[in-house]
Specification:
Chains A, B, C, D, E, F: It comes from Oenococcus sicerae. 6 copies of one chain form a homohexamer. Chain A is an alpha+beta fold. Chain A has helices at residues 52-57, 106-117, 123-135, 137-140, 156-174, 180-189, 194-197, 208-230, 237-247, 264-287, and strands spanning 10-24, 30-38, 41-47, 63-73, 76-86, 293-298, 304-308. At the A-C interface, helix 5, helix 9, helix 10 and strand 7 of A face helix 5, helix 9, helix 10 and strand 7 of C.
C-alpha cells in the first residue's frame, strides 16, 4: 500500500491509473502526468519521454505495476518512475481493488439507510424520503459528497448522510424537543442535489447545472417534484419545514444558503453536517501525520494545522 | 395634501386611517396610535383619552377629517389632533383616493408589460413568462416590491419589474452581445416569488413561506412548476439560464443569492435591479428634502445622506 | 405563574423582587422600577409615586403580593401595578421558590458529574479535573454559564458543562478516533474561569478580573495552579492538550480564543459548546412563542427569528 | 490571427513583439521571454539558447514571422517556437497593424465626444469639460482605462468614458430627475486622473504620482486647476457637485473613494462605470470561451467563471 | 463647577446656555431643551411649561443662574431645574468663562507652533506650511479637531496638531531614518481641511463642502493652491510627499484615505495621529470614572470600557 | 558583503551556510538548496549535481568560499555557483562573523535594560520584571522577536522590547497621565512568551507549545508562576494590570489577544509595539530599494510597497 512507504524509499507496487494527461516539457519533449491510487491514498508521477504507445497504454482505469523512488515536489509526495508496465491477466487488475471508497459497503449503506427510515414516523416526510431515495438510488449510493475537501470518494454522499443521521439520533436522545423525524429526513436528503451538481464518482467535476443552480436549489427542485408526484401541498407546514432544512443547511448566506436556519432542526442539521465533515477532514489529515507533530494546514478547517498526539487512545467503550 | 404642510402649522385635512392600535399610557389611560395617509405621504398621530366608541369608530380603512397641529417627535413629523371625526357621505370617503400607489395605473402597467412580451423572441422564455404572469396576474399588479425600503406601495412589484425591463432595452441597444429576450424575461420575473413571500399590498408583512423559503427559492419553484405544466425540460439550457437569472439576482451570496451571477445577462439583471431600486429610494428621500440640504440617512443606500442641489433641472430631452 | 397570563389580563400573584431601582419621572416625581420574577419568567413594573417607606420596603430579595394589569411597552410585556404589599409570614416568602434555576437539582448535578469522572481514564486529566472541581465546587454548581444569552441562571454553569459532557459521550460512540478522556475533561472545565469572571448567581455582572483577563485566561491560570499543586509538568503533552482545549474553546480568534483549535478534541469541544448553547437559546425563545409563529429575533443565534411548528412531537424514543 | 488557432496546432504567423526579456535557465543558459501580440490577443513564448544577436534583434516594437506549436503552460496558452525571423520590408511590419486598440477609431472617439458636449447645457460644467479635455487631449484619446483588468488598450480611457456617457443618456431618458449635464460631465472626466496615474498606452505601469496620490486625487487636482484658470469659484455648488462626482466614483471607501456618493448623479455614475467595466471584462472572457462552457475565473468579476451559452443571439434591433 | 456635583445633590450654579431648543410634550405643552456648560463639562436640562418670554430669554450664548437637582436619564446625568434666571450685570456673564477650550491658550499655541517651524529645514515644506498657516490662521487656532469624539473644543485643531508634532520630534529622536521636516509639516497640516469641513468652534456641524468633499480632499486642494501661489511644481517630489502625507493620514481606505501610507513618514504620521486622539479620548473618559471602576464604553476606542486604576501615579519625571 | 553586489555581477565571497537541503531535480539528479548569509543579508543558491561528499560537507553552520554570478529568479536575487569550497583554518570561519544580529550588542542590551529597571518604581512590577528577566535571561537576549517579518535575528527579542521601552519613556514625557512604571514593565515583558513559543535564534520555528498555547498565554503563565514564587496575590490590582498588558498587546481579538486593551497603558503598549515593528519592517525594505523607487510589497505593512525618496535626510538633531 502507498501509505506504507516514505520519502527516499525505492519499491515496487500495483497502482490504478486514475488520470493520465499528455504534456510537453518546456524543451518540447512529451511526457505523461499520471495520477496513481490505491485504497491508502493518491500520488503523482511523471512518465518522461513517453512514446505514442505509452500514451495509448497508460490511460485512466488501467492497473500498472511500477518500480519507483518516492520523492517530494513542492512539499507534496511524488513518485520517480524507474520501471512501469501494465498488470497482466494473472495479476490483481480489477480497478475496484484500488479505489478509495466509503468505509461501509454499498450494501450496508443501503440496509442501514433502510433501517433508519422506520424512525421517520411522520408520513409526509417518510414518503418523500422514500420517493426521492428510490428515484436517485443509483447516484445516491455511488456519488462522493464533494469534489474534494471531505468524503470525496465513491459512496461518500450516502456515507456522509448516514453519519449525520446517526449523530441526529444521538443528539435527539439528549434533547427531547428535537423532532427526530424531521431531522432524519433532512440528514438523509440535505445533499441530494449533489447527484446533479457533480458529474459522478470518478474524475468528479461540477456540471453546468451545478455551476448555474448549485446543489441547494437543485435539492429544493427535487423536493418540489417529489411533492407534485405524491400529491402533497407544497405550502403545507410539513413541506415548508423539510424544504427549509434543505435550503438552510449551509447555515449562513455567505456559505450559499439563501435563507439561514430559522427552525430548531434546521439549525441542528447545519451544525451536525459541519461537525461530521470536519471530523472526517481532520482525521484524514492526522492519518498522514506522525505522532507528536502537526499535520499540513487543512484548507477546509480554517486552514489550521492539527496536532497528532503521542497518546494511544484508551478504549472508549467496550 | 400632507406634503403641503410644515412643522408648526395648524390645518384641517381628510386622511385615510391606515392602522389604528389601542394603547395605554404609562399612567394607564387608553389612547389610539393612528397611522394616517394620503397620496403624498404617511404620518403618525395619537388620539388621547380614547373612549370605547372611539376605538370602534377610528379603524383601519376609514377616512377621517381632522384638525391638527403638525409637530415633531424624535425627528419624525407627528400630528397633534385637535379635532377628529369620520368623513360623512357627502365627503371624499373612498380609501383608494388616499392610498400611495404606483405612478403608473394598473391598466397601463398591464398594457406596457403586454407590449414588452413581443420583444421576448425565444419561444421557451416567452411561454414561461406568459404562463407565470397569467397565473399570478392578480398579485403581480397589486403587490409592493418590498416590505419597506423601495417601491413599497400597491403595484410596486409590477412597476419596479417594468422599470428594469425598460432599462434592459436601453442597455441592450448599446451592448449587442446582450440577449435581450433572456434579460427581459429575467427582469419581468425576478421578483415573482414576492407574491408568496409577502402578505399583500396593505399592512405588508413576511408570510411564513416567505421567512422559511424566501422569494428567491419561491421564484425558482414557480419556474419549475411552470416548466412542468408547459412540458419543458428543466435541464435544457433555456430553463437553466432563466432559473439562473432568478436565483442570482441578489448578486452576492451574502445578499441571499445561493449562486452568484455566472452569465452575462444575470450580471446585468442584478445591477439594473439595484440601480432602479436605489434611484427610487434616493429620489423619494430627496423629495422630502429642502434644496441645498442633505436628506436623512437612507438606510438602503449605504446609510448615506443625499444632497439635493439648488439647481433647476434643465429639460433633458424634448 | 407569570407564564400563565397574557396581555390585557388583570390578576393577583406572588413574585420575587429581583431588582428595585429608585427613579424620578421627567416631571420630578419619584417611582420604583421593579424587576419581578417567578420560575416561569421575569417582568418589569413601575411603582408610581413611591414614598420613602416604599423605597425601604420593596427591595431586592423580598417576595411581594401584587394585583396587576398585564400590558406591553415597546413590545415587551410589562405589569401595571394596581395593588402591592409584601408577602406575610403565612405566605410563600422563600426567594428560592421563585428563582429560575437549573432544570437539574444541585445534588443531581453533583452526582452526575461524579459519575462522569470515572470515564476520564487518563490519570493526569482525572486528577486535574477532580482537583479543580473540588476547589471551585461552591461556585461551579451555583454560577450561571453567562451574564445573559444562555444558561443565565443559578446552576447554569454546571448544567451546561454536564450537557456538553453528555454530548461528548454520544459523539465519541460514533467516532472512535476521539479521545473521550480528553474531551470530557475539557467539557467539564472549559468555562471554569467564569467562577472568577462573573460576580455570582444573582445580579450577575463581570468582575474587574473578568473584564481585564477574561474567563479563558483565568481558566488557564486555574489549570496552571492546579498542575503546580499536583506536581505535574506544565509542558507535558497531557497538560498542553488540556490547556489547549480550554483556550481554544471559542473556536475563532475574533470570539476570544487566543489560539484556534488545532487538535481534534479541541475542535469537537468548541462545536459541542456552541451546539448546546444554541439549542438552549432557541428552545427558550420558542417556549415563549405561539405555535405557527416566529419567535423574537434571537440575538445569540445570528439575530434570527425561529419558527415554532404546529406539529406535536412524536415520541422520539420510549 | 492568434485567436484562429488552438492548442496542438502548428502554424506560421506574423506577430508584434510587445516585450522581450533576457533570462537565464536554472542551468545557466540564456533565453528570451517574448510577449507576442496581434489584434486578436496576446501570448507568451520562450526563445531558447538565445545568442547575443538574438537579444539585439528580437526587441519590443519589432514584427516577427514565426513558425510555432501552440501549447499550454499552467493552463495558459503558450507558443513553442520552431522558427523565427524578423519581418522583411515587403511584409506587414507596421506595429499599429498588430496592436489591440479601442473598437472605435481615435477620430471617431473625438467626434463623438465633441457631439456629446452639446448636451452639457450647464455653462460651468461645459466650460470645465472643454478646458480639461483640450489640455489633456493627447493622453485622453491614447491612454488605456486601466493597467490590466478592463479597457487595457490604446484609446481605452476615452472609449470607456464615452460608453458611460452613452449609458448616461439612455438612463436619463427613463429617469427625468437625473441632471444629464452633470452626469455627462462626470462620465467624461471621472478617470481623467489616469492620464497622470498611468505611464502611457504601452507597457502601462503606475507612475510615482499614481502610487502616491492615485487618479482620484489627481483628477480633483485637475478640476481645481481648471477652475482657477477659468476663474470659477471652487466652492460654488456647480464645482462642488462635479468634484464630488469625480471623488466618489469608486462608490465605497474601501475601493478608494474618500467620500461615498451622496448625490443622485454621483451614485448613478459610480454604477454605470461599474456596469460598463464588467460588461467589457465578461465579454472579453466569453470571447475566449467555447459555447456551452465556462470561462476562466474573471478576477475583476468577483473571481467567478462565466457561462457562454449555445444560443445564437436573436437580432436585438434592426 | 459641574464636575464637583453628583446625582441626588441640589445646588446653585452659573452655567452658559450652549443650545436652547423649543419643544412640545406629547400632551402639547411647550418646554425648552437646554444644553448647559461650564469648563468642567456639559449637561442637559428641560425647562418645563416655558412661556414665550422664556423662549426669548434663554437662548444660546447667555449665562444663567440656576438652582437644580442633579438626576439621571437613560444613564446620562441631567438637571431638574428648580429655579432659573439670567445672570445680571454684576455676575460673571462672559461666555468665554464657561467654554471648554484647549488646555493651552491660543497665544501659547501660536508661539509653540511658530517655534516648531524652525525645525522644518526643507525650504519647500517650510514655505508651504507658513503660507497655509498664515492664510488659515483665524480658523486653525479656533476650530475643534472634530465634531465630537476627540479634541471637540475651541482650539482643538491646533492643540491636536501640535501634540502630534511634539510626538513626532520624540519619535524622530529614536529613529534617525525619519525625515523630521516632512513629518512635522504633515503633523501641522494634516487636518487643515477641517477648517472648511466643519462649520466652526461652536455648534460644530459638517458643512456642505465637508459632506461632499471631506477634509482630506479639501486639505489637498489647499496644498495645491498654496503651491500655485508660491510657484512650486505640483509634481516635484517635495510636493508629492507632503500631499501623500495629507491624503494617507487615515491609514486605511475604509477610513477615508484614497491611498494608504506608502512612505515611512506617512505611516508614522497616521499612527501618531491615532495615538494622540486615543489618549485624549481615553483620558477624557477616565476623568469621569471612579477609581477601581470601568468607564462607559468609549465609542472611538473600539467601543471598549476602560479601567481607571486605584494607583496614584508616581512622578514620571522631575 | 552581499549587499555590495548587484544582478549580473560575478564575484567571490565568504558566506555562512544557514540551511542546506538535499533535493532532486524533476529529472532525478540530486542538488543542494543552500541558504547563504552574511551580516548584510541572505540569499539562495543551488549546488547542482551534488555528490554524497558535497551533501556531507556543505551543511548548516559551515562557512564557505564561493565564486558566484548574481542572478534573479521570480524577482528574488539568487546566486549561480561557479566554484565552492569550505573556508580553511586561516580564513574567517567563525559563524558569528556572518550572522545577522541585533544592532546593539548583547552586553549593551543587558546594560540598557538594567538601567531602565530603575524607572520602574512600583515595587511589585519591579520585582516581577527582575525575577522573570533573570530566569529567562539566556533566551531573552538571544531569541529573535519573530519567526520572520520583523526583528527576526539573534537578539531581536530584547532589542525590540528595549526600543518599545525607549518609545514609552518619550511618550510618557508628553502625557503625564501615563503610568510609566506599568508601561515599561509591559514593554520589557510583553513578548516573554516567545522564549517558549519559538525554538531559538537559528532556524527559528514554532514549538509544539507555541502552536498549542501561543506566546500570549505562555507569557501570562510566566507571570502567574513568577507571582507564585514571589508570593504576590494574583488578583491584586498590580498583577491584574500587568497581566492585562501582556494579554491585550495584540490590540484586537482577531490578532490573538483574548481581551482587547481596556486600560490606558495597555492601549499605548499595543500601539508602540506596532509602531516599532512597522518602522523596522519598512526601513529594512527601503534599505533594499533604490532612491526614487518603490520597495517590494511589504507583507507585514498591509502588503503595500513603500517609496524611498531621493532626498538626503537633514541632520535631525546634533
Amino acid at each position: 500500500m502507498l501509505s506504507d512507504h516514505k520519502k527516499g524509499e525505492t519499491y515496487s507496487i500495483y497502482l490504478l491509473i486514475k488520470a493520465a494527461e499528455k504534456r510537453t516539457t518546456s524543451k518540447g519533449s512529451p511526457y505523461i502526468r499520471l495520477t496513481l491510487t490505491d485504497r491508502s491514498g493518491e500520488i503523482q508521477a511523471n512518465l518522461w519521454d513517453a512514446s505514442d504507445q505509452d500514451v495509448e497504454k497508460y490511460i485512466a482505469g488501467r492497473v500498472a505495476y511500477l518500480t519507483v523512488l518516492q520523492d517530494e515536489y513542492q512539499s507534496k509526495a511524488q513518485l520517480k518512475i524507474q520501471e512501469i508496465r501494465l498488470a497482466n491477466d494473472s495479476e490483481p487488475g480489477d480497478p475496484s481493488l484500488y479505489e478509495i471508497s466509503s468505509p461501509i459497503s454499498k450494501k450496508d449503506l443501503q440496509s442501514q439507510v433502510s433501517d433508519l427510515l422506520f424512525q421517520i414516523t411522520n408520513p409526509t416526510w417518510n414518503r418523500i424520503v422514500r420517493n426521492v431515495l428510490n428515484k436517485y438510488a443509483d447516484k445516491y449510493y455511488d456519488y462522493p459528497a464533494a469534489e474534494k475537501l471531505h468524503h470525496a470518494y465513491r459512496g461518500g454522499l450516502a456515507f456522509h448522510s448516514l453519519s449525520i443521521a446517526k449523530l441526529a439520533i444521538k443528539v435527539a436522545e439528549l434533547y427531547p424537543q428535537i423532532n427526530l423525524s424531521l431531522l432524519l429526513s433532512g440528514a438523509l436528503l440535505h445533499d441530494i442535489g449533489k447527484t446533479v451538481e457533480l458529474s459522478g464518482p470518478v474524475g468528479t467535476e461540477y456540471t453546468n447545472e451545478g455551476q448555474l443552480l448549485g446543489h441547494i436549489v437543485i435539492g429544493d427542485e427535487i423536493l418540489v417534484e417529489s411533492a407534485e408526484e405524491l400529491g402533497f401541498d407544497l405550502h403545507s407546514e410539513d413541506m415548508l419545514l423539510l424544504r427549509h432544512l434543505i435550503i438552510s443547511h449551509h447555515n449562513k448566506l455567505e456559505f450559499g444558503s439563501p435563507i439561514p436556519p430559522r427552525e430548531l432542526e434546521a439549525y441542528v442539521l447545519s451544525k451536525l453536517d459541519d461537525l461530521d465533515a470536519h471530523i472526517q477532514m481532520i482525521t484524514a489529515a492526522l492519518n498522514k501525520t506522525e505522532r507528536g507533530h502537526f499535520s499540513e494546514k487543512i484548507f477546509g478547517a480554517d486552514n489550521q494545522p492539527y496536532y497528532r498526539s503521542n497518546a494511544d487512545l484508551p478504549q472508549n467503550h467496550d
